[in-house]
């Protein structure tokens, strides 16, 4: 077949791929992210938020009664709107004293994705969700994030504590950085 008579492709009109999914990593304070970026973290159905970074979310954004009024169940995502951003509360377990499952995390992330797509959210900042006090493994959680958000235009930035703070925690508690480390809770209360 000859290519004579065919016009060359007009590369100026080629649209960029719609997928802009990216997983970025930042060391630092989650709450220093740009004010227009959505935030996300994991909580329980009872909305207790009594430990870890959830305490800081509760102090900064209030709204516990607003969250409870939404009556979200495990595997869903509650949402607050604060100024120009959405704050996502991934409901990954029934009670604060329980541990989440990878399935409940996946379901709550899918629910968050639907809200993002309906509301034009393209950037979300979060801690290493489910991996602090909840003890999920980041390697598995990051794979779930990729599976859920791949083929979207949503980019996610994951914030981690500075190495110095993590080292302080490791040395102070002598538990090898396990979730029960008392230093970790204090670091989160300082806004990390």
UniProtKB/TrEMBL annotation:
Superkingdom of the source?
Answer: Eukaryota
So where does this one cross the membrane?
none
Task: Give all residue intervals belonging to the Macro domain.
Answer: 10-165
| GO BP of this protein | peptidyl-glutamate ADP-deribosylation
The record's section on PROSITE patterns has:
MACRO
What Pfam families does this protein's entry cite? Answer: Macro
Q: Which residues form a coiled coil?
A: none
Protein name as annotated = O-acyl-ADP-ribose deacylase 1
Q: Which species is the source of this protein?
A: Lates calcarifer (Barramundi)
**What are the leading ranks of the lineage?**
Eukaryota, Metazoa, Chordata, Craniata, Vertebrata
Q: Which gene encodes it?
A: oard1
């Amino acid at each position: 077949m000859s290519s004579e008579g065919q016009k060359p492709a007009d590369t100026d009109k080629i649209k960029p791929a719609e997928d802009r999914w990216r997983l970025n990593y930042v060391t630092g304070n989650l709450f220093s992210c740009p004010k227009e970026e959505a935030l996300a973290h994991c909580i329980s159905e009872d909305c207790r938020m009594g430990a870890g970074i959830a305490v800081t979310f509760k102090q900064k954004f209030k709204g516990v009664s607003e969250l409870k009024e939404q009556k979200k169940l495990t595997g869903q995502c509650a949402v607050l709107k604060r100024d120009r951003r959405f704050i996502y509360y991934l409901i990954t377990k029934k009670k604060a004293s329980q541990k989440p499952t990878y399935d409940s995390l996946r379901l709550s992330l899918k629910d968050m994705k639907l809200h993002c797509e309906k509301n034009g959210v393209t950037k979300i900042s979060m801690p290493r969700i489910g991996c602090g006090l909840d003890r999920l493994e980041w390697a598995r959680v990051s794979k779930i994030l990729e599976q859920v958000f791949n083929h979207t235009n949503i980019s996610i930035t994951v914030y981690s504590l500075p190495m110095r703070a993590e080292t302080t925690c490791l040395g102070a508690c002598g538990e090898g950085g396990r979730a029960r480390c008392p230093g970790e809770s204090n670091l989160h209360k300082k806004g990390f």
